[in-house]
Write a sequence for this structure.
């Protein structure tokens, strides 16, 4: 039996295009930012058929709610805590292929997760200051 392909849910990259806002750490944790990245994604995802809403501050970065009929889905984004601060991570939640629907049922989340992941990748890959895009399975680290 073939090994299933892991979902592409965590996209890491390098860029100098998304510096922090001066007061951004007041909304989230010190040394963490990503609001400019979130705003860029929200502005450009509709070109890929994904509607995203205003970013919500979290302690780990910025949560971008995404319109999805079957279940709740969001994109998380923040810088990675490196000295140079130009490494970022975008992740899709949920990151598992099946999600609970109703009291006892589960549905296949794979098509919606892949749709959002592909859109995020295309938006970032088209930015001239984004480089070293790399997918990894968030469950493996």
């Amino acid at each position: 039996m073939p090994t299933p392909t892991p979902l592409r849910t965590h996209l890491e990259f390098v860029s100098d295009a998304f510096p922090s806002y001066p007061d951004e750490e007041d909304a989230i944790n010190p040394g963490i930012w990503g609001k400019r990245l979130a705003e860029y994604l929200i502005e450009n995802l509709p070109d890929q058929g994904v509607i995203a809403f205003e970013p919500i501050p979290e302690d780990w970065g910025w949560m971008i709610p995404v319109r999805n009929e079957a279940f709740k889905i969001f994109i998380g984004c923040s810088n990675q805590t490196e000295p140079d601060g130009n490494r970022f991570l975008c992740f899709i939640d949920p990151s598992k292929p099946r999600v609970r629907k109703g009291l006892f049922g589960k549905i296949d989340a794979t098509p919606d997760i892949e749709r959002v992941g592909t859109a995020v990748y295309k938006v970032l890959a088209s930015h001239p200051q984004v480089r070293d895009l790399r997918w990894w399975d968030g469950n493996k680290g």
